[in-house]
Amino acid sequence: MLAGMNEDAFWQLIEDCRPTEESDPDAQLLAATLTERLAQSPLSLVIGFAEQLAWALYRLDRKEYGHDLSDDAFLYTRAAVVAAGRTEFDRVLQDPSAFTPYAIDLIWAEPLLYTPDRAYKRITGEEWDRDTRYSYESCSNTEGWAD
């Protein structure tokens, strides 16, 4: 368990907060709902969510998914895979070609990245100088980029 939230709880929270309609192409609604839920939770869950999010994004940080995207575009596209839920995330991990539509269509979920920071600020009233165990920045997974 990472600071109060395990992987199953992370994915369940993503699923519970995903909009029922498909009209959230950039994950604005998902991020807002997640922020609201986390802001009403103990701080340990916010920290755990940040850790699990970083871990999921780190796992997708691999050269076979890169598709010649800029670092930011690659990060936001990986976030879109996470926003799509655990089933889609697992499918992409098993089959890198499943990432292609995200990369080609530039499906992004940048707002998801700021969810724990916004929840933290709502709880504490302070900015969070967050440092997770895994970096979600593009190309930080050295094993994923090794030849």
Strand count: 0
Individual helix count: 10
In terms of DSSP E residues, the strand content is: under 5%
| Biggest sheet statistics | none
Tell me, what's the shape? globular
C-alpha end-to-end distance = 31 Å
Broad structural category: mainly alpha
Radius of gyration: 15 Å
Helix content: 55-70%
pLDDT average, as an integer? 92
Spans where pLDDT lies below 50 across 5 or more residues = none
Order of helices and strands: HHHHHHHHHH
Overall description:
The chain has 147 residues and is mostly helical. Helix 2 runs parallel beside helix 9 and helix 3 (43-59) packs antiparallel against helix 9 (115-124). The protein is globular. The protein starts with 6 loop residues before the first helix and ends with a helix. The protein contains ten helices and no strands.
Keywords:
single chain, 147 residues, mainly alpha, 0% strand
Q: SSE layout and pairings?
A:
Layout: H1 7-17, H2 28-39, H3 43-59, H4 63-66, H5 71-83, H6 86-94, H7 100-104, H8 110-113, H9 115-124, H10 142-145
Summary, kept brief:
This protein has 147 residues and is mainly alpha-helical.
